[in-house]
Specification:
The chain is mainly alpha-helical and 626 residues long. It is built from 24 helices and 5 strands. The chain has 2 domains: 22-420, no CATH class; 426-625, 3-Layer(aba) Sandwich (Rossmann fold), CATH 3.40.50.1110. α1 (34-50) crosses α13, α2 (61-84) runs parallel beside α6 and α3 packs across α16.
């Protein structure tokens, strides 16, 4: 998230092979309205993280930031090259450090300390997260660890730092590459083409490497696969730096504000309809959002009009100026407050209170950070702030002493928390413990085909279960109620994987006369046809209980509606309303708000048992009526 105006600073350590021509020099001055676009970007991310169902494509706000950063950083570099014929790389990177590090370090030490107080699973693998945050390698460390940005079942304290890592890697590599590009090309048009070609390769990599139905974190986090937004911003900067480009034409100046209106409508529409489970998102959707953002930025480049004035409204500009701090602070605060507040359902009054409190605290803390930490460092430098604070401390000023003491406490607390942080969550521990129960039950799973159909309430030795991590974490409850139940459950199993397991078991003759199905915790239903295929594979002679889903993901209502529609077409099947049951008793969930705890596992078994009883009564009544 770069500055809106480029300071002209002398430098000596890097030069191009020839002085940058005048056509590469960006126009000086503040870009009016750019903070408004930042406000739009961070606002979309806030809504997405506070309530995903309200804006399933809100994560596109990050791509707005990418385009803005690519444009501004390149503009800064071109301006310095145009004035001095060289870029002082150490000074450039120092400016980046002044811009990024104060807020980042404060968020890390405060958030880790608060997480240590809140407890739960917030400190799981926090050492890796802190390392990634401080070295701007968060995206690749999390990819290597197999983490997921989109899974609601395993929230990470600094999950939002991945984009900062991508940007900082760009800041590190792009300046010397820019010098090489300027040396190898002679016109702005050539440079625009090169930047767009790199963007196209990156977008193509995202499209090719994305696999429908699988977690998309690798292609989303990858610097290689998510570079195109930054490079589109670079291309725009090259175009703006060339006086003969279309950006300076009378036609564009005449049509830029209507174009901005269309682009804004298109971007908001994408944020409304795209989601992380859609192939369209990764095969053109994010790229389209980046291109629309480029139009929005390009429309700001010219005389101030209504479009710029709207984006410069004081509240909007205030948020935009502090968007970096808002982006950093909001996610850790959401997690900490959620952990500290009593367990509740997703849209209860308490849930909305927690969201509102998180939003207010984010704005307050980000505002304070911007005024008393970020701006002083940007204006005076690290040494200047250090000298001023040290002078105040020696002068016995109470505020300086309090700040110094708090900093020491936070640093010590953070170090202790990192050193003692667990490597597995409570949910994972319960899954690992229950996997033994699942394996033991599966060992006794052989059973003959039930002929003729038996619609009485099944006993444990007549029940087979196929599911994902929800069934695994509920295995203790299921085996306690039905000691001879046969379970085939694995974490992260989706409906297509479940169908394969069911078909294999049917072929082997190990499926009993009553079956429990529970898949899709991390991804929903996807294609309802897969659910139909599973029920068809089990046949009309078995009693089937399909457990619906619980969670705050945008797709949960849609998935549960799809399950209800499909099951309604099968007289021998019924939906077990796990959502309603656990929604009434959220205190029986793990800290991730998705998986049941010990008591929740017994509630799960009770919900399944009640569903079998209801299904039995219905089928027996139908049989008697015939």
């Amino acid at each position: 998230m770069a500055q809106t105006a480029a300071p002209a600073r002398p430098g000596r350590t890097y030069t191009t092979s020839r002085r940058a021509p005048a056509t590469t020099t960006a126009r000086a001055g503040h870009i009016h309205g750019l903070d408004g676009l930042r406000a739009l970007a961070v606002g979309a991310v806030l809504v997405y993280h506070l309530r995903p169902t309200s804006l399933p494509g809100g994560f596109l706000g990050v791509d707005v930031f990418f385009v803005i950063s690519g444009f501004l950083i390149t503009t800064l570099l071109l301006r310095e090259l145009g004035k001095k014929g060289r870029v002082d790389l150490p000074r450039f990177w120092l400016r980046r450090a002044r811009r990024l590090l104060p807020a980042l370090v404060s968020v890390v030490v405060v958030s880790v300390s608060l997480a240590a107080i809140a407890g739960g699973d917030l400190l799981v693998n926090v050492g890796r997260q802190v390392l990634g945050a401080l070295t701007f390698s968060n995206n690749w460390l999390e990819v290597g660890a197999g983490s997921s940005y989109f899974a609601q079942t395993s929230p990470l304290l600094f999950v939002n730092f991945w984009s900062l890592a991508v940007e900082e890697q760009f800041y590190l590599l792009w300046p010397p590459l820019l010098g090489l590009l300027l040396a190898l090309t002679s016109t702005g048009r050539q440079r625009v083409r090169v930047a767009l070609a790199v963007a196209a390769v990156s977008a193509l990599l995202m499209a090719v490497l994305y696999t429908p139905g699988q977690d998309a974190t690798r292609v989303y986090y990858g610097t290689d696969t998510h570079l195109f937004g930054l490079m589109i911003g670079v291309a725009l900067a090259f175009a703006w730096a060339s006086p003969r480009s279309w950006l300076h034409s009378a036609a564009w100046q005449r049509w830029r504000q209507p174009a901005a209106l269309v682009a804004m409508a298109g971007l908001l529409a994408l944020m409304t309809v795209l989601h992380e489970g859609s192939a369209l998102t990764f095969r053109g959707g994010i790229l389209t959002a980046s291109l629309l953002t480029a139009v929005l930025v390009a429309a700001l480049l010219g005389p101030v009009g209504l479009y710029q004035r709207l984006l410069q409204m004081p509240p909007v500009a205030w948020v935009g100026e502090r968007s970096y701090g808002i982006y950093l602070w909001h996610w850790p605060l959401i997690l900490v407050l959620t952990e500290l507040m009593p367990a509740t359902t997703y849209d209860s009054a308490l849930s909305w209170t927690t969201r509102g409190l998180a939003l207010v605290l984010t704005l307050v803390v980000a505002g304070a950070s911007y005024r008393w930490l970020e701006m002083p460092v940007r204006q005076e430098g690290f040494r200047g702030v250090w000298r001023r604070w040290r002078s105040a401390l020696r002068g016995g000023r109470r505020a300086a002493q309090v700040v110094g003491g708090a900093a020491v406490v936070l640093l010590v607390t953070t170090a202790v928390a990192v050193a003692t942080a667990p490597t597995t969550s409570l949910t994972q521990q319960q899954i690992e413990a229950n996997e033994e129960l699942v394996a033991a039950s599966a060992a006794e799973s052989e059973a003959p085909e039930p002929l003729p159909a038996d619609w009485t309430v099944p006993a444990g030795d007549e029940i087979s279960g196929f599911g994902d991590s929800i069934m695994v974490t509920s295995a203790h409850g299921l085996t306690a109620r039905w000691p001879e139940v046969a379970l085939d459950a694995k974490s992260n199993r989706q409906w297509p994987d479940g169908l394969a397991a069911i078909e294999q078991a049917v072929e082997q003759g190990t499926v009993r006369r009553a079956v429990v199905l529970d898949f899709g915790t991390n991804a929903g239903v996807g294609e309802p046809a897969v659910v139909r295929a599973a029920l068809d594979a089990l046949g009309p002679g078995r009693m089937v209980v399909v457990v619906n889903l619980y969670g705050g993901s945008y797709w949960v209502p849609e998935a549960n509606a799809a399950l209800a529609d499909v099951v309604a077409d099968y007289p021998n099947a019924i939906v077990a309303d796990w959502y309603a049951a656990i929604d009434a008793e959220p205190g029986k969930l793990q800290s991730d708000g998705i998986h049941p705890d010990i008591e929740g596992g017994h509630l799960y078994a009770e919900v399944v048992a009640e569903a079998f009883t209801e299904l039995s009564e219905r089928l027996l009544a139908q049989t008697a009526g015939e």
